Structures are given as structure tokens and as C-alpha cells.
């Protein structure tokens, strides 16, 4: 039985990856931050409680830790001795990173080094996945691929460029099977509520049932390449099963503006977005990434991976899920 360690297991991707690996028969270990309220909702609070009180019946194991705590990371890595490590934990919100640049650098950049050092110190022969991002391309015009120039536009983007190069450096310096997945935006009903797609789908559902009338957004002209998160975690796993450690872009290859996503989401609920959306300066960023559209042909050619769900279907999936959540079904 293979053993995997996932940082960020309570996040959108971590929770889908845990589901995938458990279904494949892995023993799954996850690192969870201590919080004063539950942060295990995406894993299923009852399932997480069962892990903590020792009554769990599946192969999920949770450990308290933090990417800013190198000693805890070292202890967990040495105790678990995983075959595969997926580093998904991050301060992942681009706009928030402008408010917390030091914390973002320490968590996303320093945290990756701490984890890589923990693996090296434990002399582990494991495979390592780093959650890199299309935000690293920033100002470089689309289509962006594995060899495109990095020009990050936020503290988040710069921290991820550092972590990306650390991953490559540990591959070259220590022969670690370390892979960087450069993933374009991927969303789902489990997406955090302050990312734009979920903010929109949640607002549409609330407007439809009369709980809200207005939705305030920032830049409606930004173009993103939005895919469906469960498909992207499959891609992460495929990268670690490949015989060679090499980096991959995952993307749909289709660009959609925020305005188009809004229009599709409101249309799906039988609403006219012009009656409800207003632009609010508070959601504009000091430096914006105007257009991200990925070229994932390497992942298709080498791994057989191809995105199946595009932005229109994604908007409908997310609106349906938020309506169902409100209706309690
Ligand atoms: P997410 O939903 O925001 O999840 C982030 C995870 O990191 C959560 O489990 C969070 O814990 C954890 N975390 C945050 N700070 C931490 C710390 N100091 N120590 C330990 N854990 C910490 O993000 P996601 O969308 O699943 O993304 C997963 C990874 O892929 C991130 O690294 C992100 O930057 C990267 N990425 C995401 C996308 C995308 O479109 N989703 C695209 C490219 C790359 P809590 O639950 O306690 O907050
Ligand atoms: O949903 P967003 O906050 O995602 P963003 O900035 O693209 O970052 C996400 O994708 C990255 C991959 O490229 C990940 F690495 C990162 O961790 C995260 O998952 O914003 C998308 C676009 C931006 O151009 C933003 O300016 O939507 C625009 N936007 C317009 N109004 C808004 C809003 N974004 C947010 N969050 N909230 C708004 O009201």
C-alpha cells in the first residue's frame, strides 16, 4: 500500500486529492492547521472527528502542523515516511497576499524549503509534488506553457516562483523526484468563497432565493483559464506516476472573462446580471494579471491528461451546487 502525505489537505485541492488517493487504496496522511473553529468541512467534519478520536474506518490520518513550523514538518515527515508528498498548502489568495506579503513569502516560499529539507534530512526516497501556479507567468502574454517567462505580479506570485525554483533545485542538487505542476485556475463547489467564481455562484444562488440583491466585483475584464478541480488533482497524481520528474502545465486552453463567467452564471439561474452586479474599487488589485490561458499540450502528450470541463459548464455546476446548498438538498 502506497503512503501519501498531503499539506493543505483541508483545502479545495487537498480534499479532492485525498478522496482520489483513498479510492486508489493509498494510506493518506494530511497536515491540518490548528484553528479555533473547524477547518475540516471539505474532508467531512465527521470523518475528521473520527480520525482524531481513533474510530476512523478508512485510511485517512491527520497531523497538526504548519508550513511555518519546520520542526513539526520534520517530525511528521520522519514519522510518516511517505512514498509521495503533495505540497498543496499555501496562502493562496492573490489579493490577500498584497496585505500579507511577509506571511505569504514565509508560508509559500519558506514552507516549501522547510518541507524539502525535512525530506532530505529524513533521507526519504519519495516523490514530491509542488503546487505551482499560472500566476507565476503574470504579465507574460498567453498562451503560457512550461517554458514561458515568469513575470509575477503579486507577493503570491513571487513566493510561488521561489518555491518552483526550489523544487527544481532539489531535483538537480539532490536527485529528488521533485515535480512542479503549473496549474491554471481550477474551481469547484468546494472553492473558497472569496475567489471570484465561487463569489459569483454563491451570490447568484442567494439572489435567486431573495437573500441578497447585489454583487460587488472588481475587474470584469480579466481573462482566466478556468477548469474543474477534480480533473486537476488527477493530473497531479499522474505527474508523480510518470517515470521522469519533469514539470507540467495543466489548463483547459480556453480563456474566459470574469464578465462572461458572470453572465453564464446569472443566465443559468434565469437572472440578468446587469440588474445585480456593480463594480467596486475595493476588489481591484495593485497590479493585475490580465490574461492567463494555458497550453497543456505536454501534459496531454506525455501523461494523457486533458481537461474535460470548461468555464461554461463549470459555472453551471457551481451555481447548481450553491442553490442546492441553500435549499438544503
Ligand atoms: P485553498 O483551498 O486555499 O487551500 C489551501 C490549503 O493550505 C488549506 O488546507 C489551508 O488550510 C492550507 N494552509 C494555508 N496556510 C497554511 C499554513 N501556514 N500551514 C499549513 N497549511 C496551510 O487552495 P487550493 O485552491 O486547494 O490550492 C491548492 C494549492 O494549489 C495552493 O498551493 C495554491 O496556491 C495552488 N494553486 C491553486 C490553483 C487554483 O486555481 N485552485 C491554481 C494553481 C495553484 P486551512 O483550511 O486551515 O485554511
Ligand atoms: O478568483 P481569483 O481571486 O483568482 P486568481 O487571482 O486568478 O488566483 C487563483 O488562481 C491562481 C492560478 O492562476 C492560483 F494560483 C491562486 O491560488 C488562486 O487560486 O481572481 C480571478 C480574477 C482576477 O483577475 C481578479 O482581479 O477575477 C478578478 N476579480 C474581479 N472581481 C475578482 C473579483 N477576484 C476576486 N477574488 N474577487 C472579486 O470580487
Describe the structure.
By secondary structure, the protein is of the alpha/beta class. The chain has two domains: 3-187 and 229-250, Rossmann fold, CATH 3.40.50.720; 196-224 and 254-293 and 309-327, UDP-galactose 4-epimerase, domain 1 (Alpha-Beta Complex), CATH 3.90.25. The protein is built from eleven helices and 13 strands. The chain has a seven-stranded parallel beta sheet, with helices on both faces. Strands 7-10 form a two-stranded parallel sheet. Strands 8-13 form a two-stranded parallel sheet. It is globular and about 60 Å long. It starts with a strand and ends with a helix. The protein binds NADP nicotinamide-adenine-dinucleotide phosphate and ligand G4F. Ligand G4F binds at residues 92, 94-95, 133-135, 184-185, 194-196, 199, 217-219, 222, 224, 258, 283, 285, 288, 292.
Query: Any idea what the CATH superfamily of the largest domain is called?
Result: NAD(P)-binding Rossmann-like Domain
CATH class descriptor name of the largest domain: Alpha Beta
CATH topology group of the largest domain? Rossmann fold
Question: How many helical elements?
Answer: 11
User: Compute the gyration radius: what is it?
Assistant: 19 Å
Structural domains: how many: 2
- Beta-strand level of the residues, as a percent range? 15-25%
Stretches with pLDDT under 50, minimum 5 residues: none
